[in-house]
Amino acid sequence: MSTEKYIPEVGEEFEWYSEHLGKWSKYGNIIAITSKEIIYIDKDGFAQTFNLNVGYKFRPIPTKADVERDELVRIIEDSYSSYLGAAHIQKVGFTIPKKVKRSDIFDLVGGRLCSDNYLTSKICDLLGDLVESDV
Fold first, then answer.
1. Tens of pLDDT along 89-105?
2. Are residues 34 and 87 in the same domain?
3. Which end of the chain has less Cβ packing within 10 Å, N or C?
4. pTM of the model
């Protein structure tokens, strides 16, 4: 999910990245957007603003599928052996409602290990019905 150019819309809840806190935080609904500011209602009911010229990062509230996709990509990228990747994938218990293409999984592990096809097959086996064929 790209966060570089995303600007929330009026009425939408959103998340904002805080460099100071080092994490994403959820904020209330936006009530107005100008060319320079986003005006939203905070959790205490007060109007607050973000200056758009400061370079804040925004994103929509992630769905469960977004979170699980990000976690799956992180696990695959961090895995140095099929055993470690398999153990992490089994523990998480993914329920991604959208199908993942086998080629996408291969591309994630491609070039990282000498047994890319083996690891791809193992990951696809673990994900079962969540994987769709590229054919």
1. 667 677 665 677 888 77
2. no
3. C
4. 0.45
